[in-house]
Amino acid sequence: MIDTALDFGKIIIADLILSGDNALIIGMAAAGLAPELRKKAILYGMVIAALLRIVFAVVATKLLGIPGILFVGSLLLIWVCWRLYEEIRQGIDEQAEFALEVAGDPHAGYTGKPTRTMGSALLSITIADVSMSLDNVLAVAAIADGNTNMLVFGLALAIVLMAFAATLIMKLLTAYPWISWLGLAVLIYVAGEMFYRGVFDATTGIGPMMGWFEGYDLSKGH
Predict the structure, then answer these.
(1) Fewer CB atoms near the end CB (10 Å): N or C, the chain?
(2) Contact predicate 14/136, CB 8 Å
(3) Where found, per UniProt (predicted)?
(4) CB within 8 A of 185, min separation 6: which ones?
């Protein structure tokens, strides 16, 4: 029971701190459009991000049981941690907060005649969202560890936070930077645990798979 509660807590923190990228990209893309197009760009950007998360979650669920995938996933998550560390140092949350506020203000940002189409803005958002959605889903899937309810919760929470509370979250993370550092610590722990299982797990670890050693039963409950 305590372990489950802790895992849900990890998912909430991961969703919070990994929402900064999406908020920044969507806000910047929307702020560069004429005021009458911004609300649509933000809405469509959120929908694209949500759909990508759903697709990646389905794929992740199918793949994580394949021998060797946990190890590869742990390396990707370590890279996510490094990128998040750089973003915290560069103040990405503060930039995202400003971009969203500009996008929401019809008198701020670009206010002339449309010089950029909605399609080009959404293309930029989609390209950036591919990487960001994968980061979010990978972290949540690693924490959920095959628990479908937990995975659905993490996915739904990420979408809800992104759609209805993006600006509020950016303000929160800007005002209290320690939340971002706490989230980074949680992700480092998750990545380390995932790496350990990816090497030593008797079923999916690369060690037993390559015949280096027998491995251990590291599934939930052991």
Answers:
(1) N
(2) yes
(3) Membrane
(4) none
Which of 7, 5, 27 has its CA nearest to residue 169? 27
Tokens 């929160």 correspond to 172
The single-letter DSSP state of residue 201 is B
Strand partners, 216: 201
- The dihedrals phi and psi of 18, each to the nearest 5 degrees, come to -90, 5
Pick from 33, 160, 163: which is nearest to 102 by CA? Answer: 33
Predicted confidence (pLDDT) per residue in 59-80, tens digit: 877 776 677 888 888 898 898 8
- pLDDT, tens digit, 9 for 90 and up, residues 2-44: 778 888 888 888 888 877 666 777 777 776 677 777 778 778 8
Residues 179-206: pLDDT tens digits?
A: 889 888 988 998 898 898 888 887 778 8
Largest CA-CA distance found in the chain, in angstroms, rounded: 66
